[in-house]
C-alpha cells in the first residue's frame, strides 16, 4: 500500500467536542480561550514551521534546521495533546468499565492511581507541562507520565487520559489554585472516551508484541 504524500502547512484545528457552556466548574470563557488561542495558535505555528522545513536543503545551516525541528516537535505534540485533552473532557467524571478494572489491577485500586496522577499534576503547579496516563506499547503497562513541556512524552506510548497543566489551562478560573483545577478536571473527565482509547491501544500493543 503506498504511503500518502506528506503535506506541509495544511494542519487544521478540531472543534471542541462538547458544548463549552456545559462543563462543571470550568468556564466557557476559559475553555474557549484555551481552544481558540493556545491550541489554535500551536496549529497555526505548526503550519508555518512545516512550510519552513519544506525549504531546507544541504546548505541550510545546522542551527536553523535544529531550531525548526525543535519547534516542529513542540507544536506537533501540542496539537496532538491538546486534541486528546479536549476530547477527554465533557463527561460526568464517573470512572467505570475496562479502565477502572485495569487501573485497579495495575495499581491496587484506581483510587491509588488517581492519587498519584493528581500528585503528578500538582507537581507541575505554577509551571507548565502535561500529566498523562499512557499505555506503553512495548510493555503493555499503564504508566503515569510527567512532561515539563510538549516534547517530553514517553516513546511508544498511547495517551489515554491527558491533563494540561500549563497555567493557561486554569489561571483564568482558578488563579494559582492548581489543585482546584485538577478537582474540576476529574469532575469533567469523559471516561467513555478513555475506555475507547484503551481498547484501541490494547489492540495495537497486542499486534506489536506478537
Ligand atoms: Fe493548553
Q: What does this entry look like structurally?
A:
The structure is a single chain. This protein has 210 residues and is mostly helical. The protein has seven helices and three strands. A hairpin with a 4-residue loop joins strand 1 and strand 2. The chain is globular and about 55 Å long. The model has no long low-confidence stretch (mean pLDDT 96). It binds fe (ii) ion. The site of fe (ii) ion (FE2) has 7 residues, from helix 1.
Task: Note the main attributes of this structure.
globular; binds fe (ii) ion; mainly alpha; 3-stranded antiparallel β-sheet; 210 residues
Short overview:
This protein is mainly alpha-helical.
Topology, element by element:
Layout: H1 28-53, H2 62-87, H3 97-107, H4 110-122, E1 130-136, E2 141-147, E3 157-164, H5 171-174, H6 178-187, H7 191-209
Antiparallel strand pairs: 1-2, 1-3
Helix pairs in contact: 1-2, 3-4
The protein binds fe (ii) ion (FE2).
Approximately what portion of the residues adopt beta-strand conformation?
A: 5-15%
What's the helix count?
7
The dominant shape is: globular
Radius of gyration: 18 Å
Characterize the biggest β-sheet.
Answer: 3 strands, antiparallel
Bound ligand species? fe (ii) ion
Helicity level, as a percent range? 40-55%
N-end to C-end Cα span: 22 Å
**Number of strand segments:** 3
Task: State the secondary-structure class.
Answer: mainly alpha
Spans of 5+ residues with little confidence (pLDDT < 50)?
none
Amino acid at each position: 500500500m503506498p504511503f500518502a504524500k506528506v503535506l506541509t502547512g495544511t494542519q487544521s484545528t478540531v472543534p471542541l467536542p462538547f458544548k463549552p457552556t456545559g462543563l462543571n466548574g470550568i468556564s466557557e470563557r476559559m475553555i474557549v480561550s484555551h481552544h481558540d488561542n493556545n491550541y489554535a495558535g500551536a496549529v497555526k505555528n505548526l503550519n508555518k514551521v512545516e512550510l519552513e522545513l519544506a525549504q531546507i536543503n544541504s546548505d541550510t545551516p545546522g542551527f536553523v534546521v535544529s531550531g525548526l525541528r525543535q519547534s516542529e516537535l513542540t507544536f506537533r505534540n501540542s496539537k496532538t495533546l491538546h486534541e486528546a485533552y479536549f476530547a477527554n473532557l465533557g463527561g460526568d467524571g464517573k470512572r467505570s468499565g475496562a479502565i477502572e478494572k485495569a487501573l485497579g489491577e495495575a495499581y491496587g485500586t484506581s483510587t491509588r492511581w488517581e492519587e498519584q496522577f493528581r500528585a503528578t499534576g500538582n507537581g507541575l503547579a505554577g509551571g507548565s507541562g502535561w500529566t498523562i496516563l499512557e499505555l506503553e506499547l512495548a510493555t503493555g503497562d499503564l504508566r503515569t507520565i510527567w512532561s515539563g513541556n510538549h516534547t517530553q512524552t514517553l516513546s511508544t506510548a498511547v495517551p489515554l487520559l491527558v491533563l494540561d497543566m500549563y497555567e493557561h489551562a486554569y489561571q483564568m478560573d482558578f488563579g494559582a489554585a492548581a489543585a482546584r483545577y485538577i478537582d474540576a478536571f476529574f469532575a469533567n473527565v469523559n471516561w467513555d472516551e478513555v475506555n475507547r482509547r484503551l481498547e484501541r491501544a490494547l489492540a495495537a500493543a497486542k499486534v506489536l508484541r506478537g
